Amino acid sequence: MFRKLLIITLIGASMFVWGCSAGTAENGILHGKVAIGPISPVEQPGVDNEIPCEVYQARKIMVYDRKHQNLVKQVDIDCDGRYRTELKPGIYVVDINRIGIDNSPEVPAEIRIESGLTTRLDIDIDTGIR
Q: Per the domain annotation, does 90 fall within a domain?
């Protein structure tokens, strides 16, 4: 009797673990490159104007639910203008935290994150400085 109960318990525990792991989805990746400019009123054409790190650090990538109502994640941009984050599979709306009159034609953008896959979204931010 004890042996039969132990076997049933082990089978039940195995099925519970299998059932839990079978339903979990692997996250996907959202990443991209952010370009920001101009950063001063007078920029010379053809001259590479390096963007200070604090300009990137002041901006964030904002990931919202599909209805663009609830913030799911706020993502930092590194000093090279890159960002990367893991997200559960699903549909999201990506935007930026607008500073001043920042504007971008790329966002808000609806994206689909799929299990184990990478989604790229590059964003150009126009600061409005003229």
A: yes
